[in-house]
Amino acid sequence: MTFVPIDKLKAGMVLDRDIYLFNSITSKIIMLRCGQILTQAYIEKLHEFDILGAYIHTNQEKEKTISATQTHFRQPVKRELRQEALTSIHQVYNMFNQVAQKINVSSINQTMNISKKLVNSLRCNIEAKISIANLKMYDDYTYNHSLGVSILSIAIGLELGLKTQDLYDLGLCALLHDIGKMAVPISIIAKPAKLTLEEFSIVKQHPVKGAEFFLKHNLANNAICGGVLTHHEKYDGTGYPNGLSGDDIPLFGRIISVADVYDALTSIRPYRKPSTPAEAIEYIMGSSGISFDIAIVRAFLNKVAPYPIGSCVRLSNGELAIIVKQNDYNPSRPVIRLFNQPDVLLDLCMQRDVQNIVIENICDVKTVENH
Ligand SMILES: [Fe+2]
């Protein structure tokens, strides 16, 4: 089984997992079932609903070849939990514009329970790294993005050794960090072009609106409100809304800002193509000490796997390779095994003679089978 991005899906491929169309706060709807053979019409439908890719069945022979060279990537957060989380985030976001009497504290408690489950799930898989491809299986950017940011934030928090209750609070804070966007007109949020200065100044108010919502209804503690308020502050003081710098930015804000930027860069947006995980990591590393706290970036790099072990990648020299081992110093340059020369292992980080080779992308199944 391999995750194949939407633009690489081809008619004739066979689904290895159900694809969900998530369009209801109370139910999940299966769009296509495991075992379904993809047709061009189905693929167009997936495009229409902004589904980001699908798990595709690979033939046994290729599976064996790949299995012999790898340990399969373990998924730290199960699909059911991710769907439960999306439902919960959706419910709380919908409360934003309700009158005070209709604010339902139990929805916040339910979201806190999701945060606890996410923390426990990631803690049980402490060695597992976060795979970006696996985070992006569902449609609906805002909720999806919030969940992605939460998973990454908790992973960073675990790496930093935060206490359990702090991890729960951090997870909840990240799940709801963008709730203030409900105060921004949808025409601005979904605008498929660059925002005007006036529009951007409206968007820049969303951290304040979010923190005000929690404070006004007494729904969250200071750490959570502080994280919501400061998730767009930058370490050098050039962020918004208050231009805080360094350790004046609360820890939750510093953690969520890294997770937020990384998830946003690697997501499909109406106005641009997503960055590759490696490009996003380069950006985060390049902004370390400027936009982001160096200690947080270091923890983040230890927890992210842009190329999960076992994935097949195309190199800049045209060759295909399998990811064999992560490199803690530079997750963009792991240890690989050449597809056509299984005896050759290359350490893209440590070996000088391969410094000019870069990973271009993760390959789809057909590319591997035709190679
Ligand atoms: Fe935000």
Automatic annotation (TrEMBL):
It comes from the Bacteria. It comes from Caproiciproducens faecalis. PROSITE patterns: HD_GYP. This is HD-GYP domain-containing protein. Residues 119-316 form the HD-GYP domain. InterPro entries: HD/PDEase_dom (IPR003607), HD_GYP_dom (IPR037522), HDIG_dom (IPR006675).
